[in-house]
Amino acid sequence: MTVNVAIIGASGYTGAELLRLLACHPKINLVGAYGMKNTGKKVSEIHPHLRDIIDLTIEEPNCEKIVKKADVVFTATPHGVAMKLVPGLLRENTKVIDLSADYRFDDVKIFEKYYVKHESPELKGVYGLPELYRKEIKLARLVANPGCFPTAALLGLAPLVKKKLIDLEHIIIDAKTGTSGAGAIPTESTHHPVAGANVAAYKATTHRHAPEIDQELSKLAGQEVKAHFTPHLLPLIRGILSTAHVFLKKPMTNSELLEIYREFYRDEPFVRVREELPQVNYVVGSNYCDIGLENEADGNRAVIVTVIDNLVKGASGQAIQNMNIMLGFEETDGLRGPALRP
Description:
By secondary structure, the protein is of the alpha/beta class. The chain folds into two domains: 3-124, Rossmann fold, CATH 3.40.50; 149-310, Dihydrodipicolinate Reductase, domain 2 (2-Layer Sandwich), CATH 3.30.360.10. Helix content is 30%, strand content 20%. It has a seven-stranded parallel sheet with strand order 3-2-1-4-5-7-6, sandwiched between helices. Helix 3 (63-69) packs across helix 4.
């Protein structure tokens, strides 16, 4: 069985990654590439690495036309755009995976505080982190793909938060990302001469991924959790390294902590628990999330290091993983490729 798939937002980095990965998917037929810019151009004009692989022409999105030929639609659009399109896409039997923040929040007021006024708040998406919500994703028609920082932070913390083994009032997340996380539109801070030999913290206490992290940690814990999250920009193109500092309720050894993580992620195809602390180039270009940890000699503080590729497991790869679950495919279809190292 093959399924017809369309992408809205084909010009951006996440759109390009969707196209690259879906081109190798054994059960997918790409039937449309859409966007609000670059209409009329071939995909390979915008993404030259896809020449002779994908030759679709980018069209302006028309929901009525799209749902007539697509079984699944990815909306890889800026925040605030999908909310205008998704209601029209869901009128038929189409399934939608949204890569923006438009449907990630349970409380629309929190979304509006950090983003924009919501235009379709009546629609509720399933939060698309497969390791936590696989059953719900399988039954969903609208999946809200998680943010890149929350994906790394949540996967790194979930086993300890779920079991309430740590002080839930003192969780510190120090995260580093590459410049591709800012998207394809150039900015002063991501311009290579500025970012190329620099490290910078930004939105140290106000980043809009913080409330997304808090929402999901709170659901895991069954009580309100507010983590302390600060992102940093590194002179990398791809990758996130998230370092979480937590304080254990009782002393535990490294071996005990590793066994908790191994058990929690035992059947997860894309989470690898490591003996050593992982590095970004263990995962770049792949859908893998690598987790390692180290605790202090007294066993009271633990440091959990999580690495992902922000454009793959942090965005487009995870979106395809969600699609596979929704359609009943093998979860790893189109996503088996290992990382690019060096």
